[in-house]
Design goal:
The chain is of the alpha/beta class. It contains eleven helices and six strands.
Amino acid sequence: IGHPSWAKSLLAQMNPSDRKALPTWRERFANVFQQKTAEEWEADIAKAHGAGAMCRRIEEWMVHDQAIASGMVEVVEDPTLGRMKQPGIQVHLEATPGAIQGPSPRLGEHTLNVLVDDDPKSSVRAPDHATFEPVSTGVLEGLRVLDLCIVLAGPTIGRTLGEYGADVIKIDDPSRDFEVGLSTDVNRGKRSMILDLKRPEGREVFWTLFDSADIVLENYRKGSLSRLGLGYDQMQKRNPEII
């Protein structure tokens, strides 16, 4: 920041029991930061191998050179919202690259499709719109994930696994509010089915799906699934290898 002499005096005054000097240092730093733009500080901090970034509006970030060049922003053809920009894949691995497998499904779009898949004896034919063809395979191809997660952070786990080839089935509660905007990003590349786990019939279907699953994701309140007989202990008892 152009004041090397500050370091020694700052360290000398950083006594946790003496906070009288803090207002002075706050004022000094406030004055220093006002001498450059946020972009200039961002560049200087990066040059000094520090961690710092300016706050940008979404509109600014979506067209930023770094975001586009790094694949942190990609264009996706969404059947509901049309051509749009979305965050790219969460993790970049050189030897096993991931890819956006497809847009977010309509709520419950693949319910019948999934049920038919799991019952080869069934004579029921899934409707044409309930198909799912991933755009590419990946290192997790062959793994099945049951995604019970809600809101944002939880479903992002399933999305990331799907980007590396896993077959992710998003299981939604028919009584839960569904927001297209929230679903568009975190549920892309998954198959969506509606299942009421509070009903015995719903739990029976879940266990049928569970028998072909490798991973189960959930972020409900502690004990919620256990009260339905679907807790980790019950799952592990049925399949000790379940993740």
